Structures are given as structure tokens and as C-alpha cells.
Amino acid sequence: MPEQPQYPIDKAKRSIRVLNAVVERLLLEHPCRVVVDRDIQSARAMKPLAAFFVATNENFDGVIRPLVGDVFVNLHAALDAAIRAKVQEKGADITGVRFPVIDRPGDLDTAVRGASVHRAGPEVERFVRDLHAYPTGTGENIWAACRLGVNLAHRQDVAFLTYMVTVRGIKSAAREAAVRDIVRQPARHGAKLVSPLPEEHYELGIDIKPDEVTVALSEGGPLETLPLLEVANNSSAAVSRVLDGIRDL
After folding, report:
1. Tell me: the pLDDT tens digits for 75-131?
2. Does an H or E element contain 67, and which?
3. Mean pLDDT of the 29-47 span
């Protein structure tokens, strides 16, 4: 197979390396907190204490947003390029050839025909079908990475990014873990993590240091609410395996 299909995956991997450094710097330079305050949305007459997430920076634009776009747009492009390279090997026209992205299993036949995958030969067409790259299929994560690539190619906002906050046992002023459940959830500034907090263990206005805060996806099917860097690396590895499979046919 020509080397061209590797170019998009290499670009994606470079973006992941830069993304890792950028996210690490953001979290270091803008540490986040969990603060105890009154839960004014509670129906109780005496508003209970609650733990709220406080982000010092929710600006994911600048470098992070375009890097995320580069990762997933190039992962999707790598799959397109691999199919086209096989078509070129057959001496056929690559016009309109692409990796099919579908949202329902029943759309697979139509999508494969519409993507002209048959021009790459029956082995490649069978391989693509057997991936089951659609929601609930065995290749669901491949589908999700491709769908993100399609969606991010047409977006300019940063609503698809958020923080993922982990607190293992919320400790009181007495340094006791009065709330022992693990809190791990996506959160924007002001998000309520836990309510109520027992008044005998907590004081209004105290800070609680989160065990872990990272940037996460707030949308993307099965990739939702997973750490962004984990998603990017896993998606890259999954796409690389598909490229290897197509190359070896």
C-alpha cells in the first residue's frame, strides 16, 4: 500500500502529543477547587451544605479546541485514505470513495454502497462490514471517533469539552472522609458534585482539593465523559489497528 494513508494518522498522533502537553499545562496553571456552600436549589427549608466545583479557567479555545479537531478529523481521514489506497491498487477511480460512517446498523448496506467501498475489492468491503462500526456494534468506538471527526470538522465552539472531576471521599474540616462515595463526573464551573453534606462535619466556605481534574469530552457517544487524552490515545490505537487490517488485505 502507498505511504499516503499514514499521513493523516501521523498528524493525529502529533496532535495528541501536543494536546497532552497543553492539557497538562492548563491544569497546572489553572488549578480547580471544590467549595462547600449552601445548596440554594434544594427544596428544604434549611438549605443543606453542598460541594460545588470551582474552575479557574473554562477557556478550552485557543490551542485545545483546534488540536482536538485535528486529532479526530485526521483519524477519520486516515480511514478514508486507506480505503482509497486500496482502490488505487485496483486501478479504479477514487472519486467519492470513503470510510462509511453510519448511526444505525440498518444503514450499513446503503452506506457501504454509497461510499463505493466495493471498488477496493471484496476483501476490503467484507473487512469494513465486519468492523460493525456503528452504535451498539463491536466497532462502536471506531464509529464514535469518526463521528467526532465529522462533527468537529464543521464546528467552531468548545461546548464539546468540559472538566472531569474525581473526589475519593470528601473530607471535612477535621480531615475525615465524611462522604465516602467516589464522585467522578463531568463538571463546569458551579456544578454541584455532592449534596447534602452533613452539617456536623463541614463548615461553610471551606475548600476541598479534588483528587483528580482533567479535560473530558461532554459528547461523542461511548466516548462521552471520558478523559480527553485517554479517548484520543485509544481512538488512535483503534484506528491504527484498522489501518493495519486494511493494509494486509
Report:
1. 999 999 999 999 999 999 999 999 999 999 999 999 999 999 999 999 999 999 999
2. helix 64-89
3. 93
Whole-number pLDDT of residue 3? 47
Q: Quickly state the pLDDT bin for 224 (edges 50, 70, 90).
A: confident
Q: Is the pLDDT of residue 73 over 80?
A: yes
Q: How far apart are CA 109 and CA 168, in angstroms?
A: 47
DSSP states along 180-227 = EEEEEEEE-TT-EEEEEE-TTT--TT-EE--SEEEEEES-SGGGTTSB
| Cβ contacts of 75 within 8 Å, gap of 6 or more | 8, 9, 12, 145, 146, 149, 235, 236, 239
76 by Cβ neighbours in 10 Å (0-12 / 13-18 / 19+) ranks as buried
Q: Flag whether pLDDT at 2 surpasses 60.
A: no
The overall average pLDDT reported for the chain is 91
Question: For the purposes of burial, counting CB atoms within 10 Å of the CB of 92, is it exposed (0-12), middle (13-18) or buried (19 or more)?
Answer: middle
> How long a stretch of residues is the chain?
249
Task: Please give the Cα distance from 55 to 190 (Å, whole number).
Answer: 8
pLDDT surpassing 60 at residue 1: no
Rounded to whole angstroms, the Cα distance separating 136 from 140 reads 6
